[in-house]
Amino acid sequence: MIRNDTIIAQVTCPGKSAVGILRVSGIHANQVAFAVLGKIPKPRFATYSKFFDESKKVLDEGISLWFPAPFSLTGEDVLELQGHGNPFIMDLLIKRILCLKNIKIRIAQPGEFCQRAFLNGKIDLIQAEAIDDLINSETESVVRASLNSLHGNFSFYIQKIIKKLIEFRTNIEASIDFSEENIDFDFNIFIMSNFEKLNDKFLKIKNIVSEGSLIREAKRIVIVGPPNAGKSSLLNVLSCRDRAIVTDLPGTTRDVLYENINIHGISCEIIDTAGLRETEDKIEKIGIQRSWEMIKNSDHVLYVMDKTISLEDQKKTSIQFMKQISSYNIQEVTFVLNKNDLVEDFCGITKIENLLFISISALTGQGIDILKKHLSNRQKNKSQEGLFIARRRHIHQIDLSYCELLKAQKNWLKYKNIELLAESLNIINKLLGEITGEFTSSDLLKRIFSTFCIGK
Ligand SMILES: Nc1nc2c(ncn2[C@@H]2O[C@H](COP(=O)(O)OP(=O)(O)OP(=O)(O)O)[C@@H](O)[C@H]2O)c(=O)[nH]1
Ligand SMILES: [Mg+2]
């Protein structure tokens, strides 16, 4: 796809740095090279060059790189100028290029280089999003997962399902003239086995994608428990700062407090909540409602108890809490026995009736390392090779496609209607195609690329 406007942007961060890089992409990139360098550099070679202004005075000097279409990032002619990273020089160069006569050139919009790469078929939409995720990665696991997506591993999974769907659809459409009475036993078995295979593929991808989304979105850890158990003290010690107010008055925390921290390379959002108890206090009641909302939406609940209560009460409280949350979809619960310093007991992990207890002291810091290791461990085990980054958009599309598959199977069992089945398979194909960008609206593209940074 040829666009008649050429775009330019600084691809390195604004501000002073050793090197500043400008990228030009489009059909006029060659004219920019002639004007600024006096020649077109040798393709894909680092050429030491002088960058000239309109009166042939040297503006800066550095390295120029020339990537002729289609073998470039965007699939268009691309020129890169690597000069000194002084904002003033970068500005002068950009102005000089924007003022070139007879050339339609403008500043690139956020994500426009990636968008052009996508539109020119150099990368699919998942890969374009992976570039953005890679740049914004804050942990090693997100970097690895983004790279996996960028290398096409996620796209490969989706393509595999699409391929299976198309195969199925082709067979179905070839039989579209069959009437319901003509559908024999073998044909029905063929259809049911295809449903089964697709179902397996969907369950597998749903599983991987939800793990992939977890590493991107930061693990949500909610601290709950009765008042005065030491929840806020735990938030403070985990975040290494005096974030929450701590007093010996039960009911000190009444609202939800958030803190983003990195535990052994895993990005976590720690949430402190109001103590759970019966109360007539209007404000505290709202706080407790919020605590329950947080519990429902968490990946890991830390239920904090005061270890000075009897063993019997510890057991009773934990079993009761598990009953209270039995209908929620919570992945992990750990019971934290705080104030170990007061009982001077064993500090570490124990298992009672399949429930996990960790003894700590938020006051002295005892056991905090064990707790941190526990919080990051499961996540680390999950971050195996092969996990790829997934966005909410991908999960949503996969859920929609899977629902459509289940609907198609139900309809088939009920009506045995081939046209209806073919139509459903077509819808699933389109829904999956929106993930890779095979089918997309311009609105969706605008939404995705507008969140990228300029120069990407
Ligand atoms: N000895 C001891 N005291 C602690 C420990 N952790 C917290 N405390 C004390 O327990 C009291 C309550 O601590 P908070 O952290 O405010 O408890 P909370 O669970 O947030 O209480 P609410 O916000 O009222 O629900 C304070 O006086 C703390 O200093 C601990 O490990 N050991
Ligand atoms: Mg508190």
Describe, in plain words, how this protein is organized in 3D.
The structure is a single chain. With 456 residues, this protein is of the alpha/beta class. The chain contains 15 helices and 13 strands. It has three domains: 6-122, Probable tRNA modification gtpase trme, domain 1 (Gyrase A, domain 2, 2-Layer Sandwich), CATH 3.30.1360.120; 127-214 and 391-437, Up-down Bundle (Four Helix Bundle (Hemerythrin (Met), subunit A)); 218-382, Rossmann fold, CATH 3.40.50. It has helices spanning 29-37, 87-98, 112-119, 125-135, 140-150, 153-174, 185-217, 231-239, 282-296, 311-324, 340-343, 368-382, 392-415, 418-436, 442-450, and strands at 6-10, 17-25, 47-52, 58-67, 78-85, 105-107, 219-224, 257-263, 266-272, 300-306, 332-338, 349-352, 355-359. Magnesium ion (MG) binds next to helix 8.
Unreliable runs: none
CATH topology of the largest domain: Rossmann fold
**What is the assigned CATH homologous superfamily of the largest domain?**
P-loop containing nucleotide triphosphate hydrolases
The CATH class designation of the largest domain is Alpha Beta
Structural class of the helices, strands and pairings?
alpha/beta
Which cofactor or ligand species appear?
Answer: guanosine-5'-triphosphate, magnesium ion
**Cross-sheet strand order for the largest sheet:** 8-9-7-10-11-13-12
Q: Name the helix and strand elements from N-terminus to C-terminus, one letter apiece.
A: EEHEEEHEHHHHHEHEEHEHEHEEHHHH
- So how many helices? 15
Mean pLDDT across residues: 90
Q: What is the total number of structural domains?
A: 3
**The biggest beta sheet, please?**
7 strands, mixed
Number of beta strands:
13
Shape: flat
Helix content: 40-55%
Q: Radius of gyration, Cα only, in angstroms?
A: 29 Å
CATH-level-2 architecture of the largest domain: 3-Layer(aba) Sandwich
Rounded to the nearest angstrom, the distance between the terminal CA atoms is 19 Å
Strand content: 15-25%
